[in-house]
Amino acid sequence: MIEPVQAVPSGDLGLTHIALTVRDVEASVRFYRRYAGLHGIHERGSGTVRVGWISDLRRPFGLVLVERRIGPFRSWLARRLEGVRPAMHHIGVAVPTRGDVDRLCETARREGILRRPPRDAGHPVNYYGMIGDPDGNRLEVSCDQVMSVAFAEAFKDEAGRASGPELLEEEREARSRPRGDGDDR
Asked: Which of 26, 68, 73, 117 has a CA-to-CA distance to 136 between 20 and 30 Å?
């Protein structure tokens, strides 16, 4: 069972989402549910703009899928420019086993959306494959990547104590104290 994240009463801090422009919110939600295990958490909009938020429900972070319905000329122009627009490289999602990577990539191959078959790239990337979403973005499914090791190291200071979110509080306190030079900015 996935434990829900606790709501932060005054609003979230730090990295919260990545927004993707999509042609069809429902198709994108189905794709990310099937291949990344993401769940719909919010949707809104009508008329020309529809938005769907999806998340793995493990942390307050998600993808925001934005569908803009545009007129025939803008739609034609968007299709012509599609090949030259800057694209996001990929979104990474970890799965429990190499077998899961293989299964998802095989399903994607059968559906014609596999972009890179599974391969072992060695430590720290390890085993991964790439799948194309309905809008041409890529989803990396991986097993045994060690991003968490890099995060753990980033939150250690020279004394070996945690210094991630605590640093934000220390900085706020330091800013609220008067400076010793008479400048209270």
From this structure: 73
